[in-house]
Amino acid sequence: MKTDVVVHSAALTNRSEKRTLSEGSSVYVRIIKKDGNNSYTAAFGGGRFSIKSELPLKPGMGFFTTIMLENNRIVLQQQNVKMIVQDAGLQKINSVIDMTGKISDPKLISYFERIGLIPDEISLSLYNQMRNLGIRFERTLFIKARAIGMKFKGREKNASIIAYLIECKGLQASEKSVEEIMSGGENSMSFSEDFDFSNNTRENPVRDFFKMILNGEKISSAKEGVVTLFNHLGFSYSRASIQGNWIKIPFEFSSSKANKKAGNGSFCGFLNSYSKILDHFTLSMSYGGHIYGFAVFLKNERCCKIIISSTGDVEMDFALSTDFKKKFPDSEVFFCRDNEFCEFYTEPADIGFVNGVV
């Protein structure tokens, strides 16, 4: 009987036993036989693999090693000794969603099914968040996040991501907490400068407003609530090594000329846990009956890529694209489907995995 063993860049999963071994975690290895030329057949993680060892090994011996991924290979490391898994090369799947929002690559569909996930855009979005955060794969977390997210008709993906992020922060996600974070709760900032897309000076009040927010000048007066709690990290010791933290700052703006609310939106930033600076951020806003979304990716604290989403007309889309290309000539500027964009947008990446069979 064959048992599939899937190793991807976040975890090693033996589906038949519902076990997960994270990259960097300890695994027990048993040497079954010697194959010659410093090669051995070894069993670990519910699978049987051919490994190559720098030191001689004996059949029957067992020991604990640490799982590593180096140069598209699984490496078992014990102190200063490395054992390379020879017959388990890292394969890559391009995580592409078609124009209808569905996964079209049969390899990606098969991969998700083998690790117990529904092969759709929600699973892919949660998977990308997992990789972005640098945490291990937990199928139960995906299932819970999806179950909560599916209760939000038309907003399933965004709600599922928020539920997943709440759980990853060590808090308990619920339909109520997801709704409060999605709506911004009571923690909304506001400004009443003239905000007019037809005004060439529109970036001045916007820039000043966000500079005040990021400098903490506006946050101190906000009421504490679910969003404030969401913006913190460290509620779970088991995820202390998380690579970054999403924060959300809801805002609304009004027109002093019209003396009424002009629109609202949210700023969501991903703060790197090590450098303590923004890796990327999104700006979502509702204005003039349309919804606009911008994802900005930074390199060395400079803008290197901008993703734009808009429900506006073609003329407005062209104007937005032209403006961004003028202001950021060294940055790539792309458009994405409006239903592909979300507040906590994370750029898709190739999925790497390794197959093993016993």
Write a brief structural summary.
The chain is α+β, with helices and mostly antiparallel strands. The chain contains eight helices and 18 strands. The chain has helices at residues 106-114, 121-133, 139-149, 156-168, 175-183, 203-214, 226-230, 314-327, and strands at residues 4-8, 11-14, 19-22, 26-36, 39-44, 47-53, 62-70, 73-78, 81-89, 91-93, 189-191, 244-255, 260-272, 278-287, 290-299, 302-310, 332-335, 351-357.
Mean pLDDT: 75
Unreliable stretches, pLDDT < 50, 5 or more residues? 1-20, 191-202
Strand composition percent: 35-45%
Number of strands: 18
What kind of sheet is the major sheet? Answer: 7 strands, mixed
Notes on the protein architecture:
The chain is an alpha+beta fold. 24% of the residues lie in helices and 37% in strands. It contains 8 helices and 18 strands. It has helices at 106-114, 121-133, 139-149, 156-168, 175-183, 203-214, 226-230, 314-327, and strands at residues 4-8, 11-14, 19-22, 26-36, 39-44, 47-53, 62-70, 73-78, 81-89, 91-93, 189-191, 244-255, 260-272, 278-287, 290-299, 302-310, 332-335, 351-357. Strands 11-12-13-14-15-16-17 form a 7-stranded mixed beta sheet. β5 (39-44) and β6 (47-53) form a beta hairpin. α4 (156-168) crosses α5 (175-183).
What order do the helices and strands come in, and which of them pair?
Elements: E1 4-8, E2 11-14, E3 19-22, E4 26-36, E5 39-44, E6 47-53, E7 62-70, E8 73-78, E9 81-89, E10 91-93, H1 106-114, H2 121-133, H3 139-149, H4 156-168, H5 175-183, E11 189-191, H6 203-214, H7 226-230, E12 244-255, E13 260-272, E14 278-287, E15 290-299, E16 302-310, H8 314-327, E17 332-335, E18 351-357
Parallel strand pairs: 11-12, 16-17
Antiparallel strand pairs: 1-2, 1-18, 2-3, 4-5, 4-7, 5-6, 6-9, 7-8, 8-9, 10-18, 12-13, 13-14, 14-15, 15-16
Helix pairs in contact: 2-4, 3-4, 4-5
